[in-house]
Design a protein that fits this description.
This protein folds into three domains: 65 residues, no CATH class; 142 residues, Glutaredoxin (3-Layer(aba) Sandwich); 56 residues, Antioxidant, Horf6, Chain A, domain 2 (2-Layer Sandwich). 25% of the residues lie in helices and 18% in strands. The protein is built from eight helices and twelve strands. A five-stranded mixed beta sheet has the order 7-4-3-8-9. A three-stranded antiparallel beta sheet has the order 10-12-11, with no helix packed on it. It has a two-stranded antiparallel ribbon with strand order 1-2. A hairpin with a 2-residue loop joins strand 5 and strand 6. The protein is elongated, with a radius of gyration of 25 Å.
Length: 301
Amino acid sequence: MPANFMLNVSKTVLFCDFFTKLEDWQSNFYQQNVNRNLNSAAINLNAVNNFECIIIIVNNFKIRNMETVEGITSMPRIGDKAPEFKAITTQGNINFPEDYKGEWVILFSHPADFTPVCTSEFITFASLEDKFAKAGCKLVGLSIDGLYSHIAWLRSIKEKIEYKGMKNIEVKFPLIEDITMEVAKKYGMIQPNEASTKAVRAVFFVDPKGIIRAIIYYPLSLGRNFDELYRVVVALKTADEFGVSTPADWNPGDDVIIGTASSCGTAQDRMEGKEDMDCKEWYFCTRKLDKELLLSKVLKN
């Protein structure tokens, strides 16, 4: 809600789509953050009798959508289409996710260039780029720094930094310039209670159809586990390819989960061993999935 928002209406006004009960206005966030700008509106909130509704507030401006008075937009959710954007990167201009149609891609953010945790992450990610590429997944990074800062930082990483035996690492995947925070806001990468001028460590897994399939968020102080990011890609592709789910701590070669029985007859057949699976209970069944077969389908030759 802009700070200079004013109302000049003579008709009775009913504020719609914020809260479900009018009587809650006096104690709500809305009352605290909006009413201070309504002094000249001459609105009698106790005289809303005719319910002639003039909608003057943007619909869906709701706390549950993680929107704030500063204009931070809601983050996309799993199953949503990845928000589209065009951006300048260290590898030229990109049109996301259109440029990655037909491929898996990880879009990830980091708080700032020339910072130690981010440096360790970029060295690690860059050293694993070929491994992710073999799994059919491309990488795209982002921070709310400028292009020249990105270039200088990546040059410094290659020329001066060694981490866990990794050195002379060149970052070849695109790093987005987002000094306006446009992309970061679209993806909910700005978490005001963590930092209002830096993106948190967000990771979005986007499938070949441009759909967000998984999201992982880390605070500024916590570096990411890149083995886990790779595991997520492989597990998602395995689920798509074989129509299965993956249990806790799953890795290729481990048993996979079969969907829960959808009828009493199927549940009975499973418990009687009539299906090729190992059932501990009618709702908890696993089966073997050959590692070589899996990798032949999931990884590129």
